[in-house]
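quick one if you have a minute, typing this from the bus. theres a chain ive been looking at and ive put its sequence and its fold in token form underneath. please have a look and point out which stretches look like helix strand or loop to you. anything you notice is useful, everything is just below.

***
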Amino acid sequence: MRLYLIAMQFLTIIPIPFDTRCQKEDLGRSTAIFPLAGLSIGGLLVGLNWLIAPWLAPPLTAALLVTALAAVTGALHLDGLADVSDGLAARGSRERFLAVMKDSNVGAVGAVALVLGLVLKWQALLAIPAGITWQALLLFPTLGRCAQVVAMAGAKHARQDGLGAAFIQGMATRHLLVALCITIATCLLLLSVKGLVALTAVFAVTLVIKGYFQNRLGGLTGDIIGCICEVAEILALIVLSGGYQQ
């Protein structure tokens, strides 16, 4: 329970009415519970969808779900998406890339990436068939947080400071295995083969992105880990929406 609360504290802005003070090594240990935190976020989306879907048009419902997801996570991962996009656009040396990502100002490319990411998520949510809506709402945030764990497992950290480095340093193989077991079980229980296909796609793309930045920057940062979560969520929704007739 303690690790779950720590994970929720860092992945959401939900107030935790308990003492969640932790040691630095607890951050890495909490990664094992990241998928459960994602499942909890998905549960909030399911509840919101249940409340508003009967009264609103599907496009507006999907837009409000995307808004709620950004709000409950404090737009933390969206910030990573924007910063990484700006870093990629800046080109230049490793040091320039890291400096651009650390800049609190969002550049033109980062703004475009934010808009495209939100639009893709909105349209992908809208394309999810009604018969699997609640399963998809539970699953895609879970896959996004599992992707973060996969990215951090065995990774190097591009900076010596920051939350990204703290999580990576405190993580062990057993935390990855627990996170994967939770995610695989969730996929099977919710959507069976379709869920596993989404997990496989997310796993593959996460490894590609991780490999690129390990080679490009010598490791990962918190922004990159957040960006991976956003990409994984979008990809999961696209995969889950495929193969169905509306």
